[in-house]
């Protein structure tokens, strides 16, 4: 316990909701004028926090009397003051980290994430997600909108697996074989848009496995442009809508449904 | 999306004390006993709990106080209030030019009266010079597909006669008494007259039953008067005057020298079959006949046919005499003069006659669809006529031609010069109001003109005369002399807050205004001071610092452009006048401005004034909270994410959109995620239009849903937001061409009725996260669909309504 920093531990406990203003079990009310202020006590599982040293400000005979009474198992006024001022005391003590990833006020972290353009769909008001997000925002912000950066931010901050595979031309090339671009679904652009980018083979509309496809079965396919995102969708998969909020509004999702895995029989 | 502010961290001293008491009282001798309220220890604890509560309140305010301090250090400034704008229509006592003096306040002041909810609101003219004419609108007409229709006109006199809106089209009867007269002088009048009578009989025998010809003789002068009489053809076909039942066929052949026959319609009479009312008759079985099928029996044929409101073409009129002359060769030797006369019935427009007299009719009606406005000038003199067209918002002003009518009642064929002055979108008088585009024009009028006819190539919603732009920027006449004591910056408190400074004008120019209006605002004189020692004039705060929100002028401090007017100690500055504004309170409704004030002997003297449209664009000074929301963000010149766009739009819309929900949908979300559009289950017209727009919008187009979170956005505000967002997209497009367009739609705030607990952060657009009945501001209650709501979101959750007597 001595290796831990009391203010950091208190911030963590407060962000978790274990050091709130009303449930005062986390307050160490033991009277000891010789103790240094803002100390961490108890065990790792159940830490208690001792705030400012009120006893030092009081006349010594009064403190000695209060200490004796406490040792005798009686409540004292000085101990009560510890409880009353504990939360305010620790809030002031840890104010330096209020607007940071280590901040203990979830509402303020949400405001900070909002200022960086992170939607609530992504952080969902979850303190841990917010803390992880806010720590990564300065590095992510200059490259926001890029797929690889967005995927990295998503996986590191939410820890949630994605329901589809997202790739871009920079990682799989502009005419990937895996997933097969030829099986792309006619979803993101209008027919006239594709017509204007007519390749030598042109679009070939056909329905296979319940999907309308447009890429030619032979010859050159319509390539991925740098700002396109190739989505490989398993039969049971779905789009991860919150992730879309981390991409540019003009991003074009090129969807390739993957075939169902063959059964063991 | 904007998050709600963090919940308050303020402690509750009663709850805190209760917690402390419980912890301590367990250890009291005798167990849990009620504390003695007279115990000084408890009293001290209560005092301490109060101190802890107060301290927590301070702590709660601390993060935003720190943020405010930070923004203050970074030079963050509150945006000042800016004035609202509107258009007034005025009735001058006599024609004249309203010219604003450059260094004195304008003598004309316009007021909207005080009401229970607002103070007196003053407007001042913005345009440096406007020509006002004593004139009124006579009528509006529509030329459509070769036919003239009446669109009404002003129904009252006075200032009401300076504004007019088109009513339902009504057939014009102006040409019903059109006559063509052929007059000649004969040396053998008796013989010529007999030949003429014989030729007329011959023409009638050729199935030209629509043409009435009347030969006359006046000594040696021979006259043939021709006019179109549709009933004559029917009378010839049905001599007893009552329809026999079934088809009616009648002669309708052209004269020999022409192929023209007068177009006619079946009268719009209630006793006629509805399918034939107002329709053109069918071609008959044989050439030169017309037919009206299935007419009931015993109908009077009088007035059964009405002439299409268009004059007889010149070539058709000439063909009448040519036919007469062809029948009898001797008549061809008679030299005749053809003249046209139209006896205008009461309530019919007179300008077509003036145009026919001037030979300019064909010039006027060269387009398929033209709206005509006839204006009568009440006095003569130089000066242009100011006209404002009322058009749908976001429309393109139509081309306008203008023709003068002289003292002889002849419409001059040469078109007069028409110049565009400015355009502005303002809310109309409807409930709820919608924006209309007001497009002002200056029409050149010859000095002796008695009237003007405007030919507008398209439809209009209205037309106003003597309309000019005003702003809620009344002049404050100060008159104080401020002595400068030292060369350090010296603040001077002016008499009002919310001044109109160049910065305010710049901010107002950021609104979706036309370049013409922006130019006028830039030229508006804002303030006038004089340096006493040299008499040097200081105009528009040049070289002085001014805090428009605070109403504070700082001498010997540079203006925002860095220019400094150095005033030596001991010198004095006379503060003559400056302008102030009342912000959003001056966004008065249409018709509110009804009072004009000016000194006697001012020319032109104004008799009455009104504002046919409401005032708009006024904005209060920014609150500190709004300023923090605006400035506390990661700086970025280009919006990349949807959230960046939301922020950029909120900033661009400013305080008027304060508290609105602004949601930007990406192309992927709106095309690949199942979505729904409110209202449900039956989409309204707006939702259907939005759905159609979304079907064709590509990835380069964002969808923006916006509006207040407690009510529906009114049409005028929505149109204004569309204007503003369109301008923003165009501006961003120059640097970031990935987004080229925006569809802007109204946001529907929904209330979820449920007895369960809701953990989702609000507003929530995802229907499948919040199952239950949702209610919109119009009281519609619908089960939320399991889809993404693009134009609606749950903004509050309330318990289900209990039906009366359900508990029983």
How would you concisely characterize the structure shown here?
The complex is a heterodimer of chains A (265) and B (808). Chain A has 265 residues and is an alpha+beta fold. In chain A, 35% of the residues lie in helices and 11% in strands.
Strand content range of chain B? 25-35%
- The SSE order of chain A reads HEEHHHHHHEHHEEEHE
Query: Which percent range fits the helix content of chain A?
Result: 25-40%
Secondary structure category of chain A:
alpha+beta
Q: List how many beta strands of chain B DSSP finds.
A: 44
Strand order of the largest sheet of chain B: 34-3-4-26-1-35
Write down the domain tally of chain B: 5
Number of helices of chain A: 10
Q: Most extensive chain contact?
A: A-B, 59 and 62 residues
Rg of chain A, nearest Å: 29 Å
How far apart are the first and last residues' alpha carbons of chain B, in Å? 45 Å
**Strand coverage percent of chain A:** 5-15%
- Helix coverage percent of residues of chain B? 10-25%
- Taken from the alpha-carbon principal axes, the silhouette of chain A is rod-shaped
What class would the helix/strand composition of chain B place it in? alpha+beta
Radius of gyration of chain B: 38 Å
Low-confidence runs of chain A: none
Mean pLDDT over the full residue set of chain A? 85
Q: What kind of oligomer do you see?
A: heterodimer
- Distance between the ends of chain A: 58 Å
């Amino acid at each position: 316990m001595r290796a831990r920093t009391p203010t950091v531990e208190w911030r963590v406990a407060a962000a978790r909701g274990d050091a709130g203003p009303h449930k005062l079990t986390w307050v160490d009310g033991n009277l000891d004028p010789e103790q240094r202020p803002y100390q961490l006590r108890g065990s790792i599982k159940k830490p208690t926090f001792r705030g400012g040293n009120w006893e030092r400000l009081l006349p010594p005979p009064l403190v000695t009397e209060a200490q004796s009474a406490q040792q005798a198992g009686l409540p004292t006024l000085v101990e009560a003051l510890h409880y009353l001022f504990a939360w305010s005391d620790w809030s002031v003590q840890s104010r330096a980290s209020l607007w940071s990833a280590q901040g203990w006020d979830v509402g303020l972290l949400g405001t900070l994430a909002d200022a960086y353009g992170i939607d609530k769909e992504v952080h969902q008001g979850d303190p841990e997600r917010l803390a992880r997000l806010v720590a990564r925002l300065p590095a992510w912000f200059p490259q926001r909108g890029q797929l690889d950066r967005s995927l990295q931010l998503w996986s590191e901050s939410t820890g949630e697996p994605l329901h589809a595979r997202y790739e871009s031309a920079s990682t799989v090339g502009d005419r990937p074989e895996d997933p097969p671009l030829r099986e792309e679904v006619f979803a993101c652009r209008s027919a006239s848009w594709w017509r204007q980018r007519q390749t030598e083979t042109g679009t070939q509309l056909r329905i296979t496995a319940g999907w309308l496809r447009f890429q030619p079965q032979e010859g050159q396919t319509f390539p991925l442009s740098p700002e396109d995102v190739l989505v490989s969708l398993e039969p049971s998969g779905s789009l991860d809508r919150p992730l879309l909020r981390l991409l540019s509004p003009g991003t074009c999702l090129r969807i390739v449904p993957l075939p169902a895995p063959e059964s063991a029989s | 999306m904007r998050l709600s502010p963090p919940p308050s961290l303020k402690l509750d001293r009663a709850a805190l004390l209760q917690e402390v008491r419980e912890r301590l009282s367990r250890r009291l001798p005798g167990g849990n006993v009620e504390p003695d309220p007279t115990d000084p220890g408890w009293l001290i604890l209560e005092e301490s709990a109060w101190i802890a509560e107060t301290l927590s309140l301070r702590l709660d305010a601390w993060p935003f106080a720190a943020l405010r301090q930070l923004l203050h250090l970074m030079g963050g400034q509150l945006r000042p209030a800016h004035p609202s704008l509107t258009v007034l229509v005025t009735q001058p006592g006599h024609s004249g030019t309203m010219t604003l003096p450059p260094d004195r306040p304008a003598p004309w002041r316009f007021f909207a009266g005080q009401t229970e909810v607002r103070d007196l609101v003053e407007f001042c003219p913005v345009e440096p010079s406007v020509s006002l004419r004593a004139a009124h609108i006579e009528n509006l007409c529509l030329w459509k597909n070769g036919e003239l229709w009446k669109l009404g006109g002003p129904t009252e006199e006075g200032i009401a006669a300076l504004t007019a809106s088109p009513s339902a089209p009504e057939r014009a009867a102006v040409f019903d008494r059109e006559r063509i007269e052929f007059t000649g002088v004969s040396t053998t009048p008796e013989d010529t007259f007999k030949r003429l009578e014989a030729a007329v009989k011959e023409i009638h025998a050729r199935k030209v039953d629509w043409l009435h010809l009347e030969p006359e003789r006046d000594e040696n002068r021979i006259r043939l008067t021709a006019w179109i009489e549709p009933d004559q053809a029917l009378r010839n076909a049905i001599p007893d005057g009552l329809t026999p039942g079934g088809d009616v066929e009648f002669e309708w052949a052209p004269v020999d020298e022409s192929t023209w026959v007068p177009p006619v319609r079946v009268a719009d009479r209630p006793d006629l079959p509805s399918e034939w009312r107002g329709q053109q008759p069918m071609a008959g079985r044989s050439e030169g006949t017309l037919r009206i099928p299935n007419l009931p029996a015993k109908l009077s044929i009088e007035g059964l046919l009405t002439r299409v409101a268009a004059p007889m073409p010149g070539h058709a009129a000439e063909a009448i005499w040519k036919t007469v002359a062809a029948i009898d060769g001797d008549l061809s030797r008679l030299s005749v003069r053809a003249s046209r006369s139209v006896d205008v019935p009461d309530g019919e427009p007179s300008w077509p006659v003036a145009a026919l007299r001037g030979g300019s009719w064909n010039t006027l009606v060269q387009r398929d669809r033209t709206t005509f406005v006839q204006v009568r000038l009440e006095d003569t003199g130089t000066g242009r006529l100011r006209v404002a067209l009322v058009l749908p918002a976001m429309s393109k002003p139509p081309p306008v031609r203008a023709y003068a009518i002289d003292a002889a009642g002849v419409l001059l064929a040469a078109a007069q010069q028409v110049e565009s002055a400015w355009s502005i979108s303002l809310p109309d008088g409807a409930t709820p109001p919608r924006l209309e585009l007001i497009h002002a024009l200056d029409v050149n009028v010859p000095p002796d003109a008695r009237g003007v006819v405007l030919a507008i190539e398209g439809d209009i919603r209205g037309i106003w005369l003597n309309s000019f732009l005003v702003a809620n920027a009344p002049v404050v006449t100060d008159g104080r002399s401020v002595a400068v004591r030292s060369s350090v910056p010296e603040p001077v408190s002016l008499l009002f807050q919310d001044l109109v400074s160049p910065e305010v004008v710049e901010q107002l120019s950021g609104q979706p205004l036309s370049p013409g209006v922006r130019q006028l605002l830039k030229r508006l004189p804002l303030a006038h001071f004089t340096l006493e020692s040299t008499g040097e004039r200081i105009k528009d705060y040049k070289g002085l610092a001014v805090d428009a929100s605070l109403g504070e002028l700082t001498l010997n401090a540079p203006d925002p452009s860095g220019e400094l007017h150095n005033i030596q100690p001991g010198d004095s500055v006379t503060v003559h006048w400056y302008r102030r504004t009342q912000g959003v309170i001056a966004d008065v409704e249409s018709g509110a401005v009804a009072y004009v004030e000016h000194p006697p002997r001012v020319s032109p003297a104004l008799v009455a004034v009104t504002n046919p449209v409401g005032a708009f664009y006024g904005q209060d000074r920014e609150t500190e909270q709004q300023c923090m929301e605006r400035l506390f963000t990661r700086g970025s010149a280009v919006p990349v994410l949807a959230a960046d766009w939301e922020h950029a739009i909120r900033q661009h819309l400013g305080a008027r959109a304060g508290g609105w929900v602004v949601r930007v949908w990406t192309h992927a979300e709106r095309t690949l995620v199942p979505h729904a559009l409110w209202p449900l289950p039956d989409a309204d017209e707006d939702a259907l239009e939005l759905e159609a727009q979304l079907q064709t919008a590509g990835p380069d187009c964002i969808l923006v849903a916006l509006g207040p979170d407690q009510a529906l956005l009114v049409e005028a505000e929505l149109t204004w937001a569309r204007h503003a967002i369109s301008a923003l997209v165009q501006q961003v497009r120059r640097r970031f061409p990935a987004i080229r367009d925006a569809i802007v739609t109204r946001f529907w705030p929904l209330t979820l009725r449920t007895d369960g607990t809701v953990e989702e952060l609000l507003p929530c657009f995802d229907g499948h996260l919040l199952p239950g009945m949702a209610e919109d501001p119009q009281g519609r209650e619908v089960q939320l669909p399991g889809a993404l709501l693009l134009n609606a979101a749950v903004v509050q959750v309330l318990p289900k309504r209990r039906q009366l007597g359900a508990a029983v």
